[in-house]
C-alpha cells in the first residue's frame, strides 16, 4: 500500500534564480509541457507582474492548458498598511487565471522588522488579508512560510502565529521553507514535529496539510525533505536538476525516485518515472547548462563503473554495486574506459562494442597501451566511444580506409566592423584520386567541415545526410593560457543514429579537424556494418 | 565545549575513481601536501601494489613526510584459503611504511558468496587473520566494513559477526561504509544505533571507535554522515569536492563546516577552515575538473545574490539570505549581474567597482539596456567582470582609447604528418600611427595574442609583463553543431593582479580575439587607475 505525496515543481521560478540560468518565454513553455507529461501535480510558473515574460507565460497556458498539472502563480503578501483589494500587484496575480496561488509570507521577526520595516502585528494582518482576498475571488491558496526554520529558532511563538494566521485565513497547504538552506535534517525533524503538534487541534476552514521547501546550502536539501515527509508532510517542493539560487533547491530527480522506489510513496506513474532521466537532460538542454554527470539517479555517471573490482562484480550481479536498477528511471549502466582501466575493463568495453577480445590476444594489450598513451596526451574516450571503437579496429587490423587525408588550410580575417570571414581548403585521396576542395563557413570549423563534405560526397553520397549535432571544446591545461591543449568532442548524426568522436591538439583548429574527420569516417563505417549497440544512440 | 571529530580524506583513492578524473604521481603529492596544511588527521593515499603510481606515492612521502596528517595505506583482506603472512599483496602494503592501514572486508553475505566465491566462515577468518597479521607487524588498523548497510539489511547477524571479528582481532576503528550509496539518513540512524548497541559490552584489545563512509547515490551522503555522527560515530570519511565513483563520496568541503560551524564539533583549526574554499579550488585545478560553482559553502555561487529582493535585503543585513558568513570558510558574497538583473543589482554591482551610479542617471538605464542586449547575443558578464567594467565606462563616456583595431588575419595549415602551423597578422592604430605585425603560435589564438603584443609593446612597454593565465571556451547553442556561437573567457594577469574578459562570435577565432583585446586594454587601464577592488584579484 503506497501513500500519495504531492510533488510541487518550482524550476520555472526558484530554479531560474540560479546564477548563469536564463529562460525565455518559449523555454518556460517547453519545460512546463515536459513537467505536465511527467505528471507533476503542481508547477509554479512565475510571479505574474514581476516581469512581462511571466505574465505572457500564464496567458499562453490559458490558451492551451496543461493536461495533468495545475499551474500555480507565485506572489508575496500585500504591502504594509494597504488594502489587499486595491493592491495592483495582487490584481496582476488574479489575471494569471490560475486555480491555485502560492503566497509567501514572513515567519522570521528579523525579516518583518528589518526587511519589511513594519510591525509584527501588521505582518500577521498582511498574511490574513491577502489570503482572505484570494479566497474571496475563488482561488485556492498554498502558503509558503518563508524562512520558517530560522524564524522558529529565533522566535518560535511568533513563527507559529504566522502559520496559524495563514491556516485560519483559508490556506489549504502550509509549506515549511528553509529559504537560506542552513537547516540540518535533525533540526527539520524536531521543528516540523513541533509545528504539526502545535496546530493539530486548530479550527481551520480546511483540514491542514503541510509541505517542505528545502535548499542545498548545507548539502542536505534531500535529507531535509525526507526528514519532513517522515514527520507527516505531504507536499515536496523542488526543481528539476536542483537548479536554484546559490547552491540550488532540492533536486526533484533525486527526491522522486527516493520517495517512490525506496519509501513507498506514490508521486508519479511508473511509466512516467521511466522518463525521469530524459526530462532531466531535456531541461538542462533547454536551460543551456551542461548536465551534471554525477547527479544521483539521472547523471551519466550515476551507474558507471570504473574500478576493476567493481566492473567484474557488477557484471556477475548488478546488485553488488548498484542501489537500484538504472532502467527504472530510464538511465543505463556504463563500463568506463580510462587510464585507470585494467585489462578487464577494456575487455568488458570491447564486448559492448560487439568485439569479443581474448585476454591473451596481443591486440588486447596493444589497445590498453595505446589507450594509456593517448590519454596521457589528453585524449579522453569516456565520452567519445566512436573514436575508441576506431582505435580498437586499428589495433585489430580491421579499420577500413575510406579516404586518406593530405592536409588542410584555414584562413580567417576581419577588418574593422566587418564580419569575420572563414575559408578552408582540404586535400584528400579517395580511390587513388587526389581531391582538392574549398568552402566558406560561419567559423573555421564549419568551413573545414563543409570542405571535407564537398571533397567526399561524390564518392560517398550518404555523407549528405550526416549532420554535426554538437561541438564541445575543453581547454585541458587552462593554466598555460592560449598555448594550452584543447580537446574537442564532436557529435555527429545520420538522422537515425548519433555518435561522438574526439580530437586533441594545442591548435583548436587541428583538434576540431581530427574529431570532424573521425566523425565522417565512423558514419561511413556505420552504413557498412552491423551497428555496435552501445556506441551509437538511436535518435 | 566542542567535541573532537576525526576527518579521514580519501580523495586520492576513492575520489580518483570518479569518471573523468585521473591524477598523476605529482598531482597526488601536491594534493596530499594541501590536505596536510589543512590539518586533515587521516589521508588515504592509495592501494600500494595495485599500481606503480601508488607505490611511488608512499615512497615519496617516506622521503619527505607530512607534518600534520597520517598517511594511510588501503587494501583488502587476504585471499580466500591462504596464509596472510605469505600474501604478496599484504607485503606490498607493509612496504608503504605507514603507521595506519585501512583494511576493507565484506559485510554482505551476497558479496562473500557471489563476489569472493567463498564461505561465510572463511570470510570471517580472512578478516581476523589479516588484521592480526598487520597488528603483529606493529601497524594500527582501521576496518572499513564494505556494504555495511546493505549487508545488515540482508543478514544482520552475519554483518554484526564480521564487525565483531574485526574488533576482536585488533582493529581500532570500525567504519560503516554505504558502498552503493543507497541508504537514507533515517536508516543510517537506526542501523548505526543497533550496531553500537550490539558491540558495547564486547571485550576487545582497544576501546571501540566508529566511523562513517557515505556515497551520494541517493543525494544524502551529507545527511547520512550527520545522522551517524549524531549516533556517536567519531570518524567521518569523505573527499574534497565530493569526488568519487558514480555520484561521488561525501564532500568534506560541506561536512567540515557543517560539523564545525553548526554542530560544535572540532575537526580542524579555525585558521585552517579559512582556507577551505582555496583548497577546494586548488584540488579541482590539479584534478583538471571545472569547479562546481553551486557547491555548498565553497562554490563561486554559494553566496551569490541574483533576485532583486534578495540583493536589497542582503545589503541591509547579510543574515537575511546567508546561513553563515562566507568569510569564515574563505568564500565571499557576490552580487550577480545578469539579464534578470533589475536596476538595483546594476547599481549594487557598480558600487563594488567603485563607481557611484545614481538611480536617475540616464547612464544607469543605458548600462542595463546594453547589458540585456549583449546577454541576448550570448555574452555573460557574471564571470567577466573586467569586460563589464569596460561596458560601464563606455556608457559613462569614460572609457579611454589606448589603441584602435583595424583588423586581423589568421592562417592555419597542416600537411600529412606535419604539425599544424598557425600564423596571425594584426593591424592597429596607436597615436595616429598604423602598425602591422605578424607572429606565429602553437595555435591561432596564441599567434593572435603574440602579434597584438608585438604591435603594442613599443607604445606600452608594461604589456611585456602581461600573461594569459586561463582560456575557457563554451559553445553556447551546441545543438547547431560547428555553426554554433562560441563564448570565450580569457583570464589575464600582470604578475600582481588578474582579471577576466569575454568575447562572443560564431567564429571561435573572432570570439577569442575580442576577449584577448579587452584583456590587454584592461591591463593598461589598471596601470593608470586606482584598482577597482572586486574586479581584479590579487595573486
What features would you describe in this structure?
Two copies of one chain form a homodimer. Chain A has 539 residues and is of the alpha/beta class. Chain A folds into three domains: 3-287, Aldolase class I (TIM Barrel, Alpha-Beta Barrel), CATH 3.20.20.70; 304-382, no CATH class; 403-530, Double Stranded RNA Binding Domain (2-Layer Sandwich). Chain A has 18 helices and 19 strands. In chain A, the strands form five sheets. The first copy, chain A, has an eight-stranded parallel barrel with strand order 2-3-4-5-6-7-8-9, surrounded by nine helices. Chain A has a four-stranded antiparallel sheet with strand order 16-17-18-19. In chain A, strands 13-14-15 form a three-stranded antiparallel sheet. In chain A, α1 (25-38) links the parallel β2 and β3 (42-46). In chain A, α1 packs across α2 (52-63), α5 packs parallel to α7 and α15 packs across α16 (385-396). Chain A starts with a strand and ends with a strand. At the A-B interface, α4, α9, α10, β11 and α13 of A face α4, α9, α10, β11 and α13 of B. β13 (404-415) of chain A pairs antiparallel with β13 of chain B.
Structural domain tally of chain A: 3
Largest sheet of chain A: 8 strands, parallel, barrel
Question: How would you name the oligomeric state of the polypeptide chains in this document?
Answer: homodimer
Sheet with most strands: strand arrangement of chain A: 2-3-4-5-6-7-8-9
Largest interface: A-B, 122 and 124 residues
CATH superfamily of the largest domain in chain A: Aldolase class I
- What fraction of the residues of chain A are assigned to beta strands by DSSP? 15-25%
Cα gyration radius of chain A (Å):
28 Å
Instruction: Extract low-pLDDT stretches of chain A.
Output: none
Give the number of DSSP strands of chain A.
Answer: 19
Which class of secondary structure composition applies to the elements of chain A?
alpha/beta
The appropriate CATH architecture of the largest domain in chain A is: Alpha-Beta Barrel
Shape of chain A: elongated
| CATH topology name of the largest domain in chain A | TIM Barrel
CATH class of the largest domain in chain A: Alpha Beta
Number of helices of chain A: 18
Question: In percent, how helical is the residue content of chain A?
Answer: 25-40%
- Report the average pLDDT across residues of chain A: 89
| Distance between the ends of chain A | 38 Å
